[in-house]
Prior knowledge:
Layout: H1 3-11, E1 20-21, E2 30-36, H2 43-51, H3 55-58, E3 61-68, H4 75-89, E4 97-103, H5 116-128, E5 138-141, H6 152-162, E6 167-169, H7 180-203, E7 216-219, H8 220-225, H9 236-247, E8 250-252, H10 272-281, H11 292-307, H12 313-323, H13 325-333, H14 336-346, H15 350-360, H16 363-370, H17 381-391, H18 400-410
Parallel strand pairs: 2-3, 2-5, 3-4, 6-8
Antiparallel strand pairs: 1-4, 5-7, 6-7
Helix pairs in contact: 7-10, 7-11, 7-17, 7-18, 12-13
Amino acid sequence: xxxxxxxxxxxxxxxxxxxxxxxxxxxxxxxxxxxxxxxxxxxxxxxxxxxxxxxxxxxxxxxxxxxxxxxxxxxxxxxxxxxxxxxxxxxxxxxxxxxxxxxxxxxxxxxxxxxxxxxxxxxxxxxxxxxxxxxxxxxxxxxxxxxxxxxxxxxxxxxxxxxxxxxxxxxxxxxxxxxxxxxxxxxxxxxxxxxxxxxxxxxxxxxxxxxxxxxxxxxxxxxxxxxxxxxxxxxxxxxxxxxxxxxxxxxxxxxxxxxxxxxxxxxxxxxxxxxxxxxxxxxxxxxxxxxxxxxxxxxxxxxxxxxxxxxxxxxxxxxxxxxxxxxxxxxxxxxxxxxxxxxxxxxxxxxxxxxxxxxxxxxxxxxxxxxxxxxxxxxxxxxxxxxxxxxxxxxxxxxxxxxxxxxxxxxxxxx
Length: 415
């Protein structure tokens, strides 16, 4: 066990009182971590699809189900979780290295303010100790209601064998819903997610990737380098991937697609389930499409920094003031002058300074800037996306179905 891993386990890992049950091996090449809260009905389909992957990859991979809940869970939910644990203990998939963590039973529940972030962290941290560190083992994140294809493990293993970056996101497409309203809602939400990613790509942002908890993987060493998963109840995937992008680099896996569920959810304060539920039940949109003006401004800002790495903070601020009052106000709030002076002092080379700038102006600050750019209130989502696609050299795509199909194709999803 290397020193960085030992230091992480001593200082950052969350293990006690939880532990992995169901395996005694300590030589896995990869671990798939799946949080499960009230998932007794959904989990078998997810595992069935995993079992369709080649046996040589399954033999090297540990599948860890983190059955979790807080103490204040309802009797029905607790019973469902206990049934999941009992089912896992019955060895339902002898052909699979299937293990579990009990974070549900009395005395093992998650703390009151914790949720899926801590559940993922428990699974990842526990897996670190039973991976084969003589190779470069992997950690893979999946959800209990997400379906994968038979090339899933092959593609993920091959990706990390061929690429140097320590993290990767996996293309996704949510499962179809038998409820017409729900199907419309999930495709509208996907259009929002994909148009946002497309805009980031066209603007040249180093944070142009999707952040979905069931659709990423990283090397175990990259996980340790990033300081491990955070404990957030929502957005844990966004913040963790941001940290991975900063510390180890991040790419997109090509050749496989994961299929999360389109179901409603109120387990986290935001995200897919909440967004779909808001559209169908309350007729409200919990997300706003970013107009092309936002991504144009982001591109101007990133290009300006790249060209003026040797300029003073005051010179840059004067340029920004002429470009955009919105950006100028945002940078003043962020104390850009002081930040830039510190970056120039601490990073002598242009390459180091640019990297340090992107560490500071990260995915979160990018999103904060873009949310300040308002679209025309009379513009529909289709109009906003059509303008964005035209700016990105894909004119003439006016219908939502065509826009979504184009963005899916551009983002690695076969249609």
